[in-house]
Amino acid sequence: MSEELRWEHFSHQADIGVRGHGRTPEEAFEAAALALTAVVTDPRKVLPEKRVEIACEAPDLELLLVDWLNALIYEMSTRKMLFRRFEVKLEDGRLQGTASGEPIDLQRHQPAVEVKGATYTELEVKQAGDEWIAQCVVDV
Amino acid sequence: MSNIEREQLVQVTDYRWEMAPREKMAVPVVIFASRELVEAMDERVFEQARNVAMLPGIVKASHAMPDAHWGYGFPIGGVAAFDPEQGGVVSAGGVGFDISCGVRTLLTGLRRAEIEARAERLADSLAANIPAGLGSKGLIRLNDKEMTAMLAGGARWAVERGYGSEADLERIEERGCMAGAEPDQVSPRARERQRQEMGTLGSGNHYLEVQEVSEVFDEAAARAYGVQEGDVVVSIHCGSRGLGHQIGTEFLKRMVVEAPKHGIQLPDRELACAPLRSKLGQAYLGAMRAGINCALANRQIVTHLTREMFERLFPDHPLRLLYDVSHNTCKEEWHEVEGQRRRLFVHRKGATRAFGPGHRELPEALRPVGQPVLIGGSMGTASYILRGTTESETLAFSSACHGAGRAMSRRAATRKWQGSRVVSDLAARGILIRSPSMRGVAEEAPDAYKDVSEVVESAHRAGLARKVARLVPLICIKG
User: Fold this and answer.
1) Is A111–B72 a contact, with Cβ atoms under 8 angstroms apart?
2) Mutation target among A10, A68, A77, A108 for the B interface, most CBs of B within 10 A
3) Which residues are B167's β-sheet partners?
4) Residue A70: its chain B contacts at CB < 8 A?
5) DSSP letter at B186?
6) What number of other Cβ atoms are within 10 A of residue A79's Cβ?
7) Which residues of chain B are under the pLDDT cut of 50?
8) Measured on CA atoms in the order B340, B346, B351, B357, is the torsion positive or negative?
9) 3-state class of A41 per DSSP?
10) CA–CA min distance A137, chain B (Å)
11) Is residue A14 within 8 angstroms of chain B, CB to CB?
């Protein structure tokens, strides 16, 4: 699934914006997660070998997106891993998800920068036409 | 975003611009910068500085330093003070994720000619022994009890564990230990994020540089600081690592979720804050101060590692700490406002505290001159040592700029430059770069930043701090 996810970065002067597109909010969240990995390295270089479970909860979809990205940042930081494949289920303000990836390999991944946290800047989860967009600025 | 905010800026002096309070603004916006820098600033800086001026209990003005750029909530390069007696607030976004990120400069007592022959070896040994970059691990693992002691003790804890000496402590803000830290307010997740990261540089714009003093502007101050032209110094720029980032993340969310409960109307939710006199506000202060101690301890350990490397190559030249400054903090300080001394909580987000001569916080040797204000440049460009002034107290609660500030996004930088090319270009200019990531180097290319000299010139001319010396890099270890 993740291979087809549509994501992009958008400019923020000091930091960088991550944006995911999808047919559903879930898919947009997965694509935003892939955009997060792309801040650090080329996601195609990451092998989805090991799966990590992630759960978060927030009062609304936008806060939930920040929580999801921050949970991934936490797993990247404490496990020293990068992730490439994501699955998200959303229900009643709760997110159940998985992220699959591998330990950072400095030579192969050439990680550009460490992500410190997802912010509420330019934060949006919305339906635009027949697609969903999930985005925010991350601090690097 | 229109030019509305920019049009409301009025030039008061060559280096001071003001936006008068209107609508929900409680105080004016004051920007210290040359016309060129103001013209180059992103519209969002003015918008964000204006939003900060709307927060409860803000005192005097919402300030922006010459290197101000678009942040999240507060502009980076923003300074704002809040009065707890007036319903003032503390903001996690006003401090930032990298709590107490800062710079320290060490004096080596070596001259450039003395290190030149061994520069490659020095660069390699520093790169090999100082953990830098994403995924790197520190050599020190703290159990929960030691983590708590570190969060309460800061650089003092590190010195007690053998990383440095007592003499270092008086050259660090707060004498190396931030009072009022509450390690209990630091979550298990924040601790877990720090477990492998003590004594690491981090990535992004963090670095360790061996530099040469290329020019002295103020002989008397330079003498008091112990620097002269041709001297070699070492500057270290890093912060509170994963622990600070996690504290920022968690409290930002709690402040966003609880804002309605405190009756705070936010112009934008990224300005999330809590009253200083609230449980959440106090909890954040306790955690943030523990984060400051983590940064101070971290820089102290990196200093220790640096000293070990220098000792091997230059055994007769112990490294002395000139000073250590922090950039992302909220500190309780006394300031005179319209003839009254008031206890305020000063947020400096990407700004340096800059106490003037005579300030009692300064160690005796520095007191006649004022606090060293250490300004880091971007990779391959100059850095500066300035000194605090008396007038900075009135101008901006004794604050100055912190660095160059990005001029170009990371994305634009990687499209424009190749890391390996940046390294070879700098090598041709006699600057050795060591980094685990070429993409990281491209994103930090010198031209992706504003001209630090122009920023420093504005700070100097505005009276925020005065130029003492200019430093140019010889070796740069990038995260």
Assistant:
1) no
2) A77
3) none
4) 249
5) S
6) 16
7) 1-2
8) positive
9) coil
10) 8
11) yes
Query: Does residue A13 register a pLDDT over 80?
Result: no
| Amino acid, res. B95 | V
Token pair for B210: 């061996």
Task: Set out the domains of chain B in order of their start, with CATH numbers.
Answer: 4-407+449-478 (3.90.1860.10)
**Structure confidence at residue A115 (pLDDT):** 92
Question: Between chains, do A121 and B248 touch, taking CB under 8 Å as contact?
Answer: no
Pick the CATH number of A2-139 from 3.40.50.2300, 3.40.50.150, 3.20.20.70, 3.55.10.10: 3.55.10.10
Residues in A touching B196 (Cβ below 8 Å) = 78, 80
- pLDDT at position B89, please? 97
Measured distance CA(A36)–CA(A28) in Å, rounded: 12
pLDDT at residue number A60: 92
What pLDDT, in 10s, does the model give residues B104-131?
A: 999 999 999 999 999 999 999 999 999 9
3-class SS string, A98-126: EEEEEECCHHHHCCCCCCCEECCCCCEEE
Residues B422, A112: Cα–Cα separation, whole Å = 14
Inter-chain touch B97–A116, beta carbons under 8 Å: yes
The alpha-carbon gap from B242 to the nearest alpha carbon of chain A, in Å, equals 7
DSSP code string of B416-466: H--HHHHHHHHHHTT-EEE-S-HHHHHHT-GGGB--HHHHHHHHHHHTSEE
Confidence of residue A18 (pLDDT cuts 50, 70, 90): very high
* Residue B266 confidence (pLDDT): 82
Residues B355-394: pLDDT tens digits? 999 999 999 999 999 999 999 988 889 999 999 999 999 9
B189, B256, B437: residue with CB nearest A63: B256
**Interface touch A111/B440, C-beta < 8 Å:** yes
Please choose, from the candidates A107, A101, A93, the residue with its C-alpha nearest in 3D space to the C-alpha of residue A77. Answer: A101
Structure tokens at A10: 């958008």
- Dihedral of CA atoms A60, A66, A68, A74 in degrees, nearest 10, equals -140
Inter-residue contact B435 to B441 (CB < 8 Å): yes
Give the residue-averaged pLDDT of A108-134. 93
Across the interface, of B270, B405, B438, the residue whose CB is closest to A120 is B270
